[in-house]
Amino acid sequence: MVIYMAGNKVNNIDVVYTPWQNLKKTPSMDVGQVGFHNNKSVRTVRVEKRINEVVNRLNRTKVERKPDLKAEREAVNAAERAERKQLLRDKKRREEMERLEKERQAEVRSYKNLMVADKMTSNKEIASTQKSLQELEEDFM
């Protein structure tokens, strides 16, 4: 709630209470001027005599904060940048893992490991083992 204290030096003033949703401001209105959407929700209280105790208490407890909007915006931007960097790092890590997995799968499916010279035998080596052709076929089957 905002209390406008323009009349705090005079007696016999009207204080208007309404929810902030009921306030209506159009571009044609002067600075400080407001209207109401629903006049039924407006309450007016007449203050006959100024009560200094209340005014003094309000003035003592009044706190005006001037936020550093630039610093707050920079902090939000820095947090957003950090989040984007983290997402990018995670995405690169996932892509690298997928690439390595694809390479591993391709290596498993390839015939490179099957065609190793150490595992191969020539016809001359087979003939030198002194096995007959029929024995070799039986071993094969």
Automatic annotation (TrEMBL):
InterPro entries xref list: Jlp2/Ccd25
Region (Disordered): 66-103, 122-141
Domain of life: Eukaryota
Biased composition (Polar residues): 123-133
Descriptive protein name: NFACT, RNA-binding domain-containing protein
Species in which this protein is naturally found: Helianthus annuus
